[in-house]
Every structure is written in C-alpha cells, then in structure tokens.
Amino acid sequence: MSAYRTVVVGTDGSRSSLIAVERAGALAGACGARLVIVCAYLPSRSDEREARRARAEIGEEVRPVVGPAPAEQTVRAAAEAAVAAGAGAGDVDELAVVGSPVETLIDVVTRTQADLLVVGNRGMDGTKGRLVGSVPGDVTRRSSVDVLVVHTTD
C-alpha cells in the first residue's frame, strides 16, 4: 500500500475542525502529500437563516461561514495551523467554495483526485445527529476514498 498523495480536510474555523486540520497536516507532512484545506460557505445571510433552522433540528453547534472573505480567512488560518502541526504539511492548497459542506467535500475529493478525506467527529454523537445526519457521517457514507474521522469532541 502506498502513502497518500492528496489529502482533503474541511474546516469551518471552529476549534473542533482545526484539530482535524492539524491531524491532516501532520499526516500529509509525514506522507509527503499535498494537503487541500476546504471551507464551504454560504453566499448570503438568507442562507444563514436556513443553516440556523437546520442546526436547531440537529441540535449541534454548527458554524456556518457566510461570505467569501470569512471563508478565505478561515482556510488561511487553517493552513497556518496545518503547516505548524507535527511534521507539518509542505504543499498546501486553500479552497473557499460556495456550497454545503458534504457536497463541497465530495466534489473537491473528486476534482483533486484525493485519496484521503479527513473530517472531525463533531455531530456524530447524539440521537438527532444519527437520525438526521452529520457532515462526518454523510461524507463517510458517500466518499469514494478513505475517510479518517478524527476524534475532535468529547
């Protein structure tokens, strides 16, 4: 089995997602892989209202990113964390993409021909997360590549 060549990780800027980014950065550095850091964002405030309603249904703390500037700041900060982590990623791409987190991550994995997707476990616990779904659960079911779910929450 060969080492991973391209690793994709998602972030929303939360501490939980940055733990996953740091782990992905260390793994990419150890493998000599390219790291692609992705932040899915909502283009407008009206979409944020939809996200709040979904959060209320799921009962988890989701941090939707609204607008391209905050998304770009989020991936920039995450890239710094990934480079500083452990062995540190050397080849890092930053992507801010309009869309839902699950659809965006699956699309970026395909477009970059990634062979590993890294996500945090936030949202997988609890009855509502299991019934309604969560980003890590949904991408794990839909991904065509290996998925590493990093334990980022208690």
Automatic annotation (TrEMBL):
<dbReference type="InterPro" id="IPR014729">
    <property type="entry name" value="Rossmann-like_a/b/a_fold"/>
</dbReference>
<dbReference type="InterPro" id="IPR006016">
    <property type="entry name" value="UspA"/>
</dbReference>
<dbReference type="InterPro" id="IPR006015">
    <property type="entry name" value="Universal_stress_UspA"/>
</dbReference>
<feature type="domain" description="UspA">
    <location>
        <begin position="4"/>
        <end position="151"/>
    </location>
</feature>
<dbReference type="Pfam" id="PF00582">
    <property type="entry name" value="Usp"/>
</dbReference>
<comment type="similarity">
    <text>Belongs to the universal stress protein A family.</text>
</comment>
<protein>
    <submittedName>
        <fullName>Nucleotide-binding universal stress protein, UspA family</fullName>
    </submittedName>
</protein>
